[in-house]
């Protein structure tokens, strides 16, 4: 069910007063306003709901022009955001890369807080807006800057690679950042550059263990952080999916437990999974990850049958069209990072981006 959040629009400026659903909304999809966009979300939005969504979409487009703003949308965003107002979509790595090149004064992050912080780190002079500051991440919550300082005392001289799903304070204590899309490459590059065979890889235990399988020559020391969405998948889920959906190709995100990844046919970042579907065109596929991802990938692949177990990320779900609209109306909530922290954190992210 869509969160139309009408009440939350109260108290905005007169220009953007709350809208009411038109009494006679057309029911034929081709007669709907912005019908070309409706086509992309028609499996998730009813014709009756669409006119309300259109009002937010049109207001956001108007505001984007006024503010010279762009919306970055993560692959887990709800279809009615991903397919309408997001100007640039992708995985964490793509969003970090795009944040560097973006030609706008304002960046709205349709994603979670660490993604907005990364965009701000790479664009200190731009305004970065977070539609809901509470959109966090269980991995980012699992480790603090103090934890890293203590680990450095315990493992002197061992380089620290932290997952992008961390706070700026944690990145500031790290040597390199990585994402699920480049973790293996980063770990190999760090081992070579530093001439070491031990690396602290934090805070996602499962990502570290999955990467470890690819780099047996390097010892990865892990932390106990987990993604609350991906840790719920089990090898039994995969067996059941294969039994109930014969021939299904199983793609898993590397934040899943290693036993789940081992039972899958392919593991990769959200972009890696989307590329797999595009390139391999499996007849039937299941994405073992946050479930809006399948909704978004399926739009471009009508011939592929998507099996859809559903684990939603509650943090990603906090971002809605009404709160994106409100962010642009009020220019809130602006992401700020202490400059002393930002300078060190930026270094870790830039070192990652320099690895090709
Ligand atoms: P990606 O970097 O693969 O987009 O993943 C981000 C994330 O939060 C996965 O849970
Ligand atoms: Fe964090 Fe997991 Fe949500 Fe990704 S899916 S943002 S790792 S809680």
UniProtKB/TrEMBL annotation:
Q: Name one Pfam family in it.
A: NadA
EC number(s)?
A: 2.5.1.72
Pathway the protein contributes to:
Cofactor biosynthesis; NAD(+) biosynthesis; quinolinate from iminoaspartate: step 1/1
GO biological process terms held by the UniProt record: 'de novo' NAD+ biosynthetic process from L-aspartate
Question: What keywords tag this UniProt record?
Answer: 4Fe-4S, Cytoplasm, Iron, Iron-sulfur, Metal-binding, Pyridine nucleotide biosynthesis, Transferase
Q: How is the cofactor bound?
A: Binds 1 [4Fe-4S] cluster per subunit.
Residues bound to iminosuccinate are: 74, 92, 163-165, 180, 253-255, 270
Q: Which GO terms describe its cellular component?
A: cytosol
Name the family. Answer: Belongs to the quinolinate synthase family. Type 2 subfamily.
Give a short account of what the protein does.
Answer: Catalyzes the condensation of iminoaspartate with dihydroxyacetone phosphate to form quinolinate.
Quote the PANTHER family the UniProt record gives: QUINOLINATE SYNTHASE, CHLOROPLASTIC, QUINOLINATE SYNTHETASE A
Name of protein = Quinolinate synthase
Which species does this protein come from? Answer: Ancylobacter novellus (strain ATCC 8093 / DSM 506 / JCM 20403 / CCM 1077 / IAM 12100 / NBRC 12443 / NCIMB 10456) (Starkeya novella)
Gene transcribed to yield this protein: nadA
């Amino acid at each position: 069910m869509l969160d139309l959040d009408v009440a939350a629009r109260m108290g905005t400026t007169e220009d953007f007063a709350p809208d009411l659903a038109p009494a006679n909304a057309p029911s034929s999809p081709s007669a709907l306003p912005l019908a070309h966009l409706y086509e992309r979300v028609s499996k998730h939005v009813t014709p009756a709901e669409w006119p309300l969504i259109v009002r937010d979409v049109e207001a956001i487009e108007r505001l984007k022009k006024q503010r010279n703003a762009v919306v970055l949308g993560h692959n887990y965003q709800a279809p009615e955001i991903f397919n309408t107002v997001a100007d640039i979509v992708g995985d964490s790595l793509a969003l970090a890369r795009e944040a560097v090149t973006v030609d706008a004064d304002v960046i709205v992050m349709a994603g979670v807080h660490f993604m907005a912080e990364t965009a701000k780190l790479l664009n200190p002079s731009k305004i970065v807006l977070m539609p809901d500051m509470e959109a966090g991440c269980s991995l980012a919550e699992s480790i603090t800057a103090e934890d890293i300082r203590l680990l450095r005392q315990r493992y002197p001289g061992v380089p620290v690679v932290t997952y992008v799903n961390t706070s700026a304070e944690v990145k500031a204590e790290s040597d390199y950042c990585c994402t699920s899309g480049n973790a293996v490459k980063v770990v190999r590059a760090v081992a070579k550059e530093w001439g070491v065979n031990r690396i602290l890889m934090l805070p996602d235990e499962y990502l570290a263990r999955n990467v470890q399988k690819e780099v047996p020559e390097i010892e990865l020391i892990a932390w106990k952080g987990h993604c609350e969405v991906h840790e719920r998948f089990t090898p039994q889920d995969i067996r059941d999916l294969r039994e109930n959906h014969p021939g299904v190709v199983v793609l898993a995100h590397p934040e899943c437990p290693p036993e789940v990844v081992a039972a899958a046919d392919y593991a990769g970042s959200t972009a890696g999974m989307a590329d797999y579907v595009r390139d391999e065109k499996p007849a039937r596929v299941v994405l073992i990850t946050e479930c809006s991802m399948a909704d978004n990938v399926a739009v471009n692949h009508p011939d592929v049958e998507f099996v859809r177990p559903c684990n939603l990320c509650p943090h990603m779900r906090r971002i809605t069209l009404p709160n994106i609209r409100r962010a642009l109306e009020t220019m809130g909530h602006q992401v700020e990072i202490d400059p002393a922290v930002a300078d060190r954190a930026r270094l870790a992210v830039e070192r990652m981006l320099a690895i090709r």
